[in-house]
Amino acid sequence: MTTFKLKAGFFTAIFCIFFSLHSCKEQPKNIVERAPITFTKDGELSILKKGTETAYIKFDIEISESEYETQTGLMYRSSMEDTQGMLFIFEDVAMRSFYMKNTEIPLDIIFIDENMHIVSFQKNANPFDEAGLTSTVPAKYVFEINAGIADSLNLEVGDLVQFQRN
């Protein structure tokens, strides 16, 4: 009887170990793929050369106002058309600092004051660079466009910016 109990206990233990090991078998991992983030046109932005009243260039803009939108900005985007940009709108005028964490495309960052004049630039910001890119004077708005466009359009401090929402 004791031998039967030992054998039964032994087989029960083996059975439990076998099934516990089998149930611990690694399950296939779910791979989550990030859907591409596409441009959403929220309005248009025009830049007027200082001293003129005619729009020099127009951009389609995506507007960023919420905390989440401001924190993510153009992150995780693989491209943007040269006629597109992102306009960040802040509640106050302050020194602004941006970085390129998780930003895949090089950018020109344009700082704009409360009177809608360009006051500072950070040109040719490198993708994925986490160094702070700061305005040289306080700004209320920040406009991001593809790198090199600010120079190709000869944008300057003092140029006037106008925008309208859709």
From TrEMBL:
This is DUF192 domain-containing protein. Transmembrane segments: none annotated. Signal peptide: none annotated. The lineage of its organism: Bacteria, Pseudomonadati, Bacteroidota, Flavobacteriia, Flavobacteriales. Pfam families: DUF192. It comes from Arenibacter nanhaiticus. PANTHER family: UPF0127 PROTEIN MJ1496. Gene3D superfamilies: Protein of unknown function DUF192 (2.60.120.1140).
